[in-house]
Amino acid sequence: MHGTPxxxxxxxxxxLAAAPPAAQGSAISLGMDAEGAxxxxxxxxxxxxxxxxxxxxxxxxxxxxxxxxxGLSGLDGGSGGIEICRKMEWNTTxxxxxxxxxxxxxxxxxxxxxxxxxIEMGCSPSxxxxxxxxxxxxCNQRKGDVSGNVYILQPCKELCEHARAGCASIMxxxxxxxxxxxxxxxxxxxxxxxxxxxxxxxxxxxxxxxVQPAQSPGNSGVYPKQQPANTTxxxxxxxxxxxxxxxxxxxxxxxxxxxxQPDCSAPCRQVLFTQPNYRLARxxxxxxxxxxxxxxxxxxxxxxxxxxxxxYPERPIIILSTCYVFISGTFLVGFFAQGRVSCNSHxxxxxxxxxxxxxxxxxxxxxxxxxxxxYFLMASSLxxxxxxxxxxxxxxxxxxxxxxxxxxxxxxxxxxxxxLVQTILVLFFQGIEGDDVSGTCFTGILNVQYTLYFLLxxxxxxxxxxxxxxxxxxxxxxxxxxxxxxxxxxxxxxxKLMMRIGIFSLFYMVPAVVLIACFAYEHTYRATxxxxxxxxxxxxxxxxxxxxxxxxxxRDAAAAAAYREGDSPEAGVHPSANFYVFLLxxxxxxxxxxxxxxxxxxxxxxxxxRHVICxxxxxxxxxKHNPPPPPASSVPSSRGKAVPVHGTARTPAYV
Length: 655
Prior knowledge:
Largest sheet: 3 strands, antiparallel
Strand order of the largest sheet: 3-7-6
Number of helices: 17
Helix content: 40-55%
Strand content: 5-15%
Structural class: mainly alpha
Number of strands: 15
Radius of gyration: 39 Å
Distance between the termini: 116 Å
């Protein structure tokens, strides 16, 4: 079949409405509304034993006798029809089906063929099973029965409801009602029990739970028992399957992975948001990167102008702010690169025409972007720890500036070597991943385990340690303030210092806490976002030969919807990424570089820059070349010899 999915669906549903009516007699109506012919299902075959024998299902699948049989390839030139029933686990069927057609007749093949486009859309994990149980019904002969009679199984009510939950809404969109009345089928679970009776065709494995390998004596020869749809086992099997399409395939063994599949990557700027949102995020990040870069650069140059002002414990603020010069600079590079760093359309691609998210260490630009961004982000967090610790030494343990200065080498080793080790670990595990939102490379973008171990845990630990030292220092400063007040001295300067420390700490800790919360949000839901995106866009990447994987995704979604009332972990809930949370995440990442300059907001900073500006302007006002020296004159020395002296204003000097 050819054409768009919508055209195929309309064609299929029109064919379905025009299908030959079933025989009357003991058939019951399963209730199509006025917009379509009623579909008749003959359940009389399933109420009592019928005269055998059963016939092998493979005879039906191969075509063969019976008036007008078409086989597998005779319907619309395709491979539809009864072929979809080959994979069903039963091996025998009856020569007459529940639609009152000859099982091998043209009508049987044609009926399933009209559903083929809807099946390929994967609207329900149970639609194929329901149709096959009607057109190619299960035929069994019970053990010990020598009468020659056989038993035909009807679909379970639960199977019909599963199929209806996924497909009825799609049919309704095009004006067609659901053609089967599920209440007319027998329930597969007796009241008060938790297993299917085996007297009807239950929902398939993975939708309603695993099939029991053994059959009980009372169920022998009918159908193996299954767990019901509300069991815990069934609710843990809703993870969508994923088969990497050729458009996303990478060269082997270069460290790429997507949705658990190696040698595969995510498409660039397509998974999380719409294209307008990606553009807005790019300009949002670019604007704040520029503000952070200028603010951090101002802090750094202020230190160079008057470095004597910034002794320990204040100096870590300057180094922390300097880290954000590199962080914001990396984001600016990502902004101007427009995805050429975070996305890969050549080098390692088997399909160079399609851009995917860069991963591992195969791309030098991406690796460099990651090293700078990750290293200085971790370094800034550690300099926050050093800052809090030195405040504690000064306020709590009464260390002098000189004593703290003598430990500066240890502080630098801690704050620069630790991030280096962390960065090497990420490189070792090839945890580099392109961030197609910001245009940079980072870690924890596709693999949520990297988010946990390389981001959440270290950032949380650094923030907590710094907070503990900060609180200890504040407690000590409060004691000192109380002692000074008790002695009658003024505490204005101490209180001003405490206020500045408190405000700066808030400016650092609030963005840091929000950043950790955003990473936790991504760690919790990112895998689900990726699965849901693939479920909704699979058909854009697979050709018709890969339709089965897309069908499986639709099955998983329909299964989740069917468990909506059963408190399933993903019961019909398909969360997508919140765009505003991501905007917040990038803002707080860069906000510390802006707020760290708060410590410099003072008259001393203005005075320092005023002095520099005056010095530069006064130097510029002086002539570029000195005037030539005046001619030399001679003055008598004490010994009667003339001594040359430059200028005429100088007082004579005698040796």
